[in-house]
């Protein structure tokens, strides 16, 4: 793992009970995540050492910043898997699945109409909001998705600052049947004390069905190594049951897309 500045710690497999990481940005050069195959492989090795058996790559879909196209993402994903297998990393190739993290942006209603999504497990749609500005009209967006039989996973609700003191809004999302996925690194304070407190509160409230690394690069990988030495996080994973293991074999998935 030559990309790390420090090698003082090795990852401990405390996330083995989760089985699957279903949120990361390790498809190279498509968003603000990994910049190279080498960086992706380094991060994936850390995730494996931390206990994950399988990983979904979920690149951003965000107009205008990351106007990714599903067909191009699938081609790049196939190239990455072939590159891993060609270089002898067959286990790494088999542990990967492809989906997306979809921002509710100016083009989102068009996506709903076209049903153009890469999904987790063939039916789960990972979506996110702006980290800076509250989105209006979300009830209708969520209703429209549910009418098309999508199961909605909201990425990192603990990180939206405008909901930090609005638990009734988050409760409303839960009442609508939205699943929550918190970031593992929120629990370690990687994003600050506010998201950390909110993440623990959500777990204790029974609001969290999924955990994800939201891995972007080796900085995140080093933070994940450190998190595996956090006894409080380890106890939380031992105490609570999460739904990540539903997606244990992404390489065998037959319906990872809907478009």
Strand order of the largest sheet: 3-5-7-8-9-10
Which fold name is given in CATH as the topology?
TIM Barrel
What number of domains? Answer: 1
* Spatial extent as radius of gyration: 17 Å
CATH homologous superfamily name? Answer: Metal-dependent hydrolases
The overall pLDDT, averaged over residues, is 92
Number of DSSP strand runs = 11
- Share of helix among residues? 25-40%
Number of helices: 10
Q: Which structural class do you get from the secondary structure elements?
A: alpha/beta
Report the top-level CATH class.
Answer: Alpha Beta
What would the principal axes of the Cα set say about the shape? globular
Detailed description of the structure:
The structure is a single chain. Strand 8 (151-155), helix 6 and strand 9 (179-183) form a beta-alpha-beta unit. With 259 residues, this protein is an alpha/beta fold. The longest helix has 17 residues, at 70-86. 40% of the residues are buried. The radius of gyration is 17 Å and the shape is globular. The protein has one domain (23-253): TIM Barrel (Alpha-Beta Barrel), CATH 3.20.20.140. The protein has helices at 37-49, 70-86, 90-94, 108-114, 138-147, 167-175, 184-187, 193-204, 218-227, 231-239, and strands spanning 20-21, 54-57, 60-61, 96-98, 101-103, 117-118, 124-128, 151-155, 179-183, 210-212, 257-258.
Write the layout of secondary structure elements.
Elements (H helix, E strand, L loop, with lengths): L19 E2 L15 H13 L4 E4 L2 E2 L8 H17 L3 H5 L1 E3 L2 E3 L4 H7 L2 E2 L5 E5 L9 H10 L3 E5 L11 H9 L3 E5 H4 L5 H12 L5 E3 L5 H10 L3 H9 L17 E2 L1
Parallel strand pairs: 1-2, 2-4, 3-5, 5-7, 7-8, 8-9, 9-10
Antiparallel strand pairs: 6-11
């Amino acid at each position: 793992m030559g990309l790390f500045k420090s090698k003082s710690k090795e990852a401990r497999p405390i996330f083995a009970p989760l089985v699957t990481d279903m949120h990361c940005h390790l498809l190279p050069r498509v968003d603000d995540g990994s910049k190279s195959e080498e960086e992706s492989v380094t991060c994936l090795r850390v995730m494996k050492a931390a206990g994950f058996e399988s990983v979904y790559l979920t690149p951003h879909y965000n107009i205008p910043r990351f106007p990714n196209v599903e067909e191009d993402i699938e081609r790049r994903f196939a190239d990455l898997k072939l590159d891993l297998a060609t270089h002898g990393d067959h286990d790494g190739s088999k542990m990967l699945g492809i989906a997306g993290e979809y921002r509710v942006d100016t083009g989102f209603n068009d996506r709903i109409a076209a049903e153009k999504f890469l999904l987790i497990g063939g039916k789960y749609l990972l979506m996110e909001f702006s980290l800076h500005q509250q989105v209006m009209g979300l009830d209708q967006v969520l209703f429209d998705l549910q009418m098309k039989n999508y199961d909605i996973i909201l990425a990192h609700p603990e990180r939206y600052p405008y909901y930090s003191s609005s638990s009734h809004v988050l409760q409303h999302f839960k009442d609508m049947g939205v699943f929550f996925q918190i970031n593992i690194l929120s629990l370690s304070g990687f994003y600050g004390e506010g998201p950390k407190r909110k993440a623990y509160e959500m777990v204790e409230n029974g609001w969290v069905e999924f955990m994800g690394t939201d891995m972007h690069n080796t900085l995140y990988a080093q933070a994940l190594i450190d998190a595996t030495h956090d006894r409080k996080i380890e106890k939380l994973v031992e105490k609570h049951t999460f739904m990540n293991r539903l997606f244990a074999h992404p390489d065998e998935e037959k319906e990872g897309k809907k478009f």
